[in-house]
Amino acid sequence: MDTLVRVILIAVYLLALRLGIKMTFKKAGRGSVISTKGFAVWRTFILSVLATVSFWWIVLPSSVPWFFSVGLPDYAKGLGLIFFTLGWVLRVWSQMTMGSAWSADISSGGRLVTSGPYSWVRHPMYTSYFVIAPTLLAATDNWLIGSLAFSYALVSLARVSKEEEELLKIFEAQYAEYRQSVPGAICPKIFSKD
Prior knowledge:
Blueprint: H1 2-24, H2 39-59, H3 74-98, H4 124-140, H5 143-157, H6 160-181
Helix pairs in contact: 1-2, 1-3, 2-5, 3-4, 4-5
């Protein structure tokens, strides 16, 4: 099971690295992955540490101290891997749906995206982080990796209100109407008052 988890994590991290390189050279999205504004610094720092610790866990598993392990059975790791993969699919789907409107930092411009996962929840990329964090903990059976992933999700969550403000400024009535039709910021509204 651990080998399968390592193979999938390598694929996911290579995909993320490819995207980061494309953004750095302005060939994808807007904004910058290397930003000194607001939460971007913390997100970049946490993500760098998470990538380093994960790389250590993937490449040199026998050198990772035993006390980082939670001690989960293989079936829990398997379920974690399945849901981690689904979380990444949601993240990639969200980013692909946004296309050139996607930005690593909170910046104005682009277009309002309301299709795909954005028709269920206003910030599905952040939703994916909250799926990824606990499932990465389960898949790797490593509380340090899981804690870093959860920290990244929390710092990302802190950006939601800033993004909401920015989107209201840019798109005004159009975004207000979208907020009415899709009331969940990071969690889909399951029950309706209708």
